[in-house]
Amino acid sequence: MLGNKIRDYLRGLRRSPAFRYFKRDIRAKVGFAIVLVVVFTAIFASFVAPYDPIEPHYEDRLQGPSGKYLMGTDWAGRCLFSRIVYGTRYALAVGFLLIAVQASIGVPLGLLAGYKGGRVDNLVMRIVDATLAMPGLIIALAFVALFGPGLYKVIIALAITGWAGYARLMRGQTLAVKGETYIEAAKAIGEKDRTIISRYVLPNSISPLIVLMTMTFPAAILLASAMSFLGLGVMPPEPEWGAMLNESSRYLGDPMPAPLWSIFPGIAIIVLVLGFNFLGDALRDAFDPRLRE
Amino acid sequence: MISEVPEAKIKEAEAKETATPGEAKASEEKLIEVKDLKKYFLTKRGIFAREKKWVHAVDDVNFNIRRGEVFGLVGESGCGKTTVGKLILGLIRPTAGEIYFDGHNLTEYNMEELRKLRKRMGVIYQHPQSSLNPRMTVHTTLSRPMEIHKIAEGGKKEETILRVLKEVGLNPQHLDRYPHEFSGGQQQRIAIGRVLVLNPEFVVLDEPTSALDVSVQAHILNLLNELQSKFGLTYLLISHDLGIVDHMSDRIGVMYVGKMVELADKEEIRKNALHPYTRLLLAVVPIVDPEQKRKGVVLKGEVPSAINPPPGCRFHPRCPYAKPICKTEPKFEDVGDGHYVACHLWRAISKESSR
Amino acid sequence: MSEPLLKVQGLKTYFFLERGVVKAVDGVDFEIKKGEIFGVVGETGCGKSVTSLSILRLIPSPPGKIVEGEVIFEGENLLEKSKEEMRKIRGNRISMIFQDPHTSLDPVFTVGYQIAESIELHQVIEQHLISAEEVPRKVIEMLKLVKIPDPEHRVVEYPHMFSGGMKQRTMIAMMLSCNPSLLIADEPTTAVDVTIQAQILDLMRELRQKLGMSILIITHNLGVIAEMCDRVAVMYAGNIVEQGDLKTLFKSPKHPYTRALLEAVPKVGTKKGELASIPGMVPSLITPPPGCKFHPRCPYAMDICRKKFPQMVEIGKGQLARCFLYGGGAKK
């Protein structure tokens, strides 16, 4: 049953004008390629990385790129390339988990506010407004200061404020969809409210949601890396790119210069963020009805 | 020239008016009865303003729809005809008045009970593309009504779907497709199919062909006619197009700014329309015949707003026959043979047209 | 024989899309005389709107292109004019009003301002026909011309205070302020109520009388055509299939499509369920059927219709039909 539904959905997707537009967009191809490579690397990190990322080789510390170590080594002689490779896991995990948590809170609240309207809408939106006014990074830092650093704590800390964007989007979408004739037609055939939300409103609000997710992914990565860079997120020796930037920042000049060490994690972050940005842009344009003839 | 209406006549009219229109032919079963129906909407700003602005979308409307007939409701934008349709379907609640469906007083039912009554009614909308869920296949769209009301399952459900597809002129290959893959005419057929799967008794057709091309319109109207005779359906046809209403309906009700101003059999409206607004509508509809030029009608003014309307006949500012009495509310009175008019001056107008 | 005001010859406008070339207008010829009301009627996708936009060269140019043809207006070929020259013609010698009055007016400027802007652009700045001081008077004159009540007070109001019918009349006022020789009206009354439609059509006829201008009306509404036009062209899938004077076309339509169209409209006396409907669907404009584009749906289709594309045949004075039933075969 479910398999059939998925097959139908995919087939409908393939025939949709959005998909045809998307296929032709160079940004889509580039973005998709980058994301695919990163995901692949994350899954098969143990096969791609030549060394264990945490294992130190004190005799080879602070080396530049060479045949032995593709990107060189850090202060403890750990292979930078391997650390970058394993770092993809942290980057993707933070992104996916954070978005999952934010969406699980924000989407249902937004749907509720939009569909019910009235007092419920008012209440939820005032909370959303207040949350959006809060500086996300600073609150996250405060949270970490209170409860200590670490990957999961970082995610919780960022989710405290991050859900509001999803709520606002879903509410807007729900309001837009609510006014469509097919919603009234559904009521006219006797659909219950909760079915209308799940089978009529939600499926038709997915497009902007997907775009939002793809666009907030890079923000999530940047925020998490920022926190790690400040020493309040993932801590070394974990191979997280932000943490690597932190460590390497002390070695930019005298007395022990190793500038390339900081460049590689920086490039990795940039590439992944760009990839998702391209993908998000392409998706957003593909879904925009005005760009189609 | 008409003097004040004699008192005896007024009393007579009042006595007739308390009987619901259509009751004269009581042998015909009334499927729908609408009594003193009112629906007012509050304009948004009105919540905080000192003087609340109410839109009088539907204001004291009374009529019946008989089982098996096509009742045409005609009027221009803002006259309230679409609102009347939604009120009868129970999709919105009246501000005042009563609606009876096969004897059930809908105004006393709660949302849950109304939901159950829905399987006896159907509705077709003006824009077929927006009336279908873009994320549901034709198959799902046709299945949902049966699943909701637990009417049929499995084999029997599939049978019904295939049968209905055939009735509306579509193929089984269409079942897997999505609405955007079809033309406007086909989409409207899908919408008609969605109505048919429940085998309803009553269907509201809200401008069913206004968004379709002329040739497609003909298809759909023919189809609707065929289905009506085949399944003994009762239609409420709402349209601004007098041509279509005239073609399809048995009886016609004319609405203007929330009020019903005239109600009569189709032939009566054609030959003996009494209300000045009805006569205006008949005069301005462009006729597809270059030899019949429109009678030069002097048209004044604009359609008034339905917000806090002034007392009296709503058409009088634009009416060529207007007299001082028109500033008082006319009664919706029976002028014989099921013909009702809301106009103080109908007798004079009637004399004029028979000259 | 005086020269026609507008002469369109062999007009072809194509849209170059990824999925193919849409031949929206595929060889259209017609003429409009001075002071005449000419109607173009057809269903969705027949190319009537694209034809009018092509005349004014308002076709969006990345996908669309006028690939062939001539549009001779007052003796000059509009397709050869520069962008600057076309700008001077639009709104000045040829004006156009559109279907939806609600979105055609700018909501942040008063009605008077918008009409004045139109006047200033063409009459003051470019042609020095009237001085800047005279503009307010001219604005009120235009509002009176289109029968807007109480124009002196209405001039300072914003579009949202106007009803749909009044907005459409304001559009007409703006478009006529420079006394154009040709007014193109694309579905001018489709979005308004029937009583307002009657007012606007009456107004247009009166203006034709007073100002001697020609009107090109584009619509799918046969009733409007019957009421307004002197001559009519019926379009189908990018071509004109029949053309002629109003009475003859309605009384004895020659092309099967015209006949079917006239019979599909419910008239007094048509029995229920017997509206003539045309089987099949409008053809693709990217890959139209071979031969006559209407043949798959035509009850009179002959063998030749499937193979060759019919030319226009003259049947009687000024009456033309593109159909093999009347000849129309090109010599082999």
Shape of chain C: globular
Provide mean pLDDT of chain C, rounded: 88
Note the run of SSEs of chain A as H and E. HHHHHHHHHHHH
Terminal CA distance of chain A: 35 Å
Helix content of chain A: over 70%
Which structural category do the helix and sheet elements of chain A fall into?
mainly alpha
The residue ranges of chain C in which pLDDT falls below 50 over 5 or more consecutive positions are none
- Based on helices, strands and strand pairing, what is the structural class of chain C? alpha/beta
* Tally of strands of chain A: 0
Number of helices of chain C: 12
How many β strands of chain C by DSSP? 12
Whole-number radius of gyration of chain C?
Answer: 21 Å
Strand line-up in the sheet with most strands of chain C: 6-7-8-3-9-10-12-11
Notes on the structure:
The complex is a heterotrimer of chains A (293), B (355) and C (332). In chain A, 75% of the residues lie in helices and 0% in strands. Chain A is mostly helical. Chain B is α/β, with parallel strands linked by helices and 355 residues long. Chain B has helices at 7-18, 81-89, 111-117, 128-131, 138-148, 154-168, 184-196, 214-231, 242-248, 266-272, 276-284, 346-354; strands at 30-42, 54-66, 70-74, 96-101, 104-105, 121-124, 202-206, 234-239, 251-256, 259-265, 332-334, 340-342. In chain B, β11 (332-334) and β12 (340-342) form a beta hairpin. In chain B, α6 packs across α7 and α7 (184-196) packs parallel to α8. The radius of gyration of chain B is 22 Å and the shape is globular. Chain C has an 8-stranded mixed sheet with strand order 6-7-8-3-9-10-12-11, sandwiched between helices. Chain C is 33% helix and 22% strand. Chain C starts with 5 loop residues before the first strand and ends in an 11-residue tail after the last strand. Chains B and C meet through α8, α9 and α11 of B and α8, α9, α10 and α11 of C.
